[in-house]
Every structure is written in structure tokens, then in C-alpha cells.
Amino acid sequence: MANAAGRRHRTGLFLHPDAARRQEFLGACAESFDRLLTADSIASARYALAQNKISLLVIDLHGAAMPAGNELAALVRSRAGAPVLVLCPYTRAATMAELMAQGALAYRITPLASAELRDAVAALLAPAADTVASAQQHLLDREAELNDLLAIQRSLQRALYGSEALERMGARICNALCSYPGICHAALLRTAGDGTLQLVAQDARVDLDLHDVLAAHPALFDAPAQRGEMLLFDAPAKAGDADLAALLEEQGVHMLLAMPLRGEPGGPLLGAVSMLFDRPLVMSREHFSCFGSAAQLISFGLVMSELRQQNDALGLELTQITPFDGLTGVANRRQGEQVLDAEIRRARRYGVPLAVLAFDIDSFRTINELYGYTTGDRALTLIAGMVQTRLRSSDTLARMRGEQFMVVATHTVAIDAFKLAEELRLSIAATALPGADTVTASFSVAQLAPDEGASELVARLEAALHRAKRAGRNCVELAMAR
Fold first, then answer.
1. Residue 109 pLDDT > 70, yes or no?
2. What fold does the segment set 333-478 form as a domain?
């Protein structure tokens, strides 16, 4: 229906429970409509929508009195693509993202000046441009946006690959986020034992250190982020801190998006990821979906990092409890060191010779890279088992670290230990490794010298083993006493 001026009749509906907020909107935007209705509840808004042809529905999320949930989502869904404007405080961005998933809507982050609010309303009431050129440009823009969003997902997946410590993984995450157009600073924060958020890593294309920012403005993330809320403000001043706004604006920061990190929906807060933008970005449903998925990926990385730490701690505990290496079944490093100390004391007391052999599988990293870690583990197990069968019951084979082993040979002089090492070297080189080429090992041999302790003996072995590596590998070096 057209009015006297020949334009379509524009009816608006503003929803908020508080009478003062409704009156404020009436004062700012009443002249933008031919008729402006207000509703104090979702039920009354639903009735108004059923009884009137509403040109624009405005939902104000300000304050705890404005409920979120299924009813509000259904209200947006009932619009079936008709214009909806959500006025959203920066601490309720999560609610806005949930509503956006129900249908098309526009939003503005509050607080807004009256002129800005009128401009937002006017833009949604204006007739939509329906030219072929604008439609094609819109499709091209959407395609570029989706490509950028897919690229950041792939970058994050690569950043989370591997077993680095949390700080290194965090640096890779922040670097990946900064590859997205517009993100000039990214930071990963972790929830500490006292519930505060502590900076783990950051990356930036601006001269900004979040350590300094948080020291001067601890409330930036404290209240909302510790409650696990998404933050979004499209102007630094909307954070309500004039000094912080001045600092960010000086660095050309126009927008902040912070996502909570949880291991599972409703689970404990693991931390937050913060992104600063050097340009204002109107977030679409795809943006929220992509950054939400990114937060889930990062949360998964945090959980895996925590599990790795727990596994490492458990492995250390088990090492203290059991004397055996879990992969090869031979003595572990702790047991090997204890046996070496005990045999040195025995050799001193009874005046008998003691020899020690060290060997290292050659180019073991290449084996893992070419054939996989499963093949590498099989090689360690196979070689350890073969060596064990060629030792006396009084000798001890221990896995010291990675691909390095030690043999404590009792009642043995250097020349006999050298012969044993040569036999073992030839046997290893002749051992077929399923799924890969044969492998070789480098050896060093030392006999305990008078008044020599375990640390000095091991140092001689290590030096000789390095000489064997430099000599071309697959050989035996004798560690001469000084």
C-alpha cells in the first residue's frame, strides 16, 4: 500500500522489555517510519507481526532483561528473509551470531549515536538495488570472502599439526590468523588456575604488544571472556575505556573479535583467541561460522597439548616405576644408569674390568620421514631384540634416548668389547627391515679407567660416537682413556 507521497508504507516494530529503551528508540527513529510499533515481550512482538505488515523488525539485546533462546530465534526465523536489525552490546555477540543462523539480519554494535541508528534504519528501509551489475558484484565479493575463510581454516589446520609445546603451537596459530585479510593482531590466551586469562602467544602486523595492553587494561577480557562470552566491537570506543580506545586507534585498530575456547559445549573455559582488525568488517553468518569453527580447532589443539603434557608426565612416572622401555622391552634409561653405577662400584671393589658400548641407529629421522613412524618403531624393536639375543645374561642392554642404546658388558676388556661391537654392527647391517631398506648403526666402545666415574665414562662414549658418525657411520670407534 502506498501513502500520499507515493512511496510504500513503512511500518516498524521495536522489541525490548524496558520502557525507557523503547522510548529512546521512538525519539531517535520515529520519523523514519510511517508507523512505529513497540513490543515489551516476544509474545507481543509475535502478535504484532501477525496483525501487521512489518517493514523492519528491530531487536534490542541491551541488558539482561532481553532474553535469548529458542523463542527469540523463532521470531527471527518467522521473518523469512524480511529485514531484521539487531542492536547488540559488544558482550552479547554470541546471541547475535545464533540469531543470524536463523535467517538474514543486519546488526549494529551498541552504543550507537542517534544519527548512526537512523542511518542503519534508513539503509534497511531503502529499496534494494536489483541491477545485474550489483548482483554480479555481490556474488564475486561473496566468493572472495568464502575463499578467504577457507584459506584461514586450512592455515589453522597446518598450525595445529605436530607435537610442539603450547607456546610454539600458539605462535603458529596466531601467525595463521594474521594471514586473514584485515587481521592485524592475533593472540592466544589460556585460562590460569585462578581463572584469569594469561597471554600464551601473539603475532602482529602493527606495533602492539598485548602484554602491555592487558597490564594497563586488565578488564578488556576479564569479565566477559572469563564468563566464556564472544566479544565483538566495531569501534574501540565501544569498549568503554577511553585510554584503551586511544591506544588501539593510534595503531589503526578498528574492530576486535574475541572467541571463547572450550573443549566441548558447556565445558570449562580453556582460554580465548583475540583478533584485532585494521578495518571495519560486517560479520556475515559465514564469518561467525568460520571463526566459530576456528575456535573449535584451537580448543582441540589446547586439549591435545594438555593431553600430551599429561602423557609426558605419566610416562615419566612410569619410568620411575618400571625398569623397562615400553617400546623395545629392554632396560630404560633410568635402569641403564643405575646398572652402570652398580657395575662401576662392583668393578672397583673386586678389581675386574668393565666395558661399555653405545650405539646409535644411522639416519633414523630419514627412516621415519620416508617410511613412517610405525616402521621406525619396528626397526627399534627388531634391532633391540636382535642385539639382546647376542649378549650374555650378565650384560645389560638399555635404551637411553630415541634411537640410542647402551650395553654394559661386565668382566670385559676393551678389545673384547670392540669385537662384540663389530659383530653387532655387522648383524644389524644384515637385518632385513620389513617395509624399508636395511639399516646400519654406529658404535663406540670404552673400558672403565681407574678413578673414572659414570659421567666421565659416558662423555668418552658420546665423543667417540660422534667421531663414528663423522667418519661415515656404520663403524666402531674406540674411546681411549686420557
1. yes
2. Alpha-Beta Plaits (3.30.70)
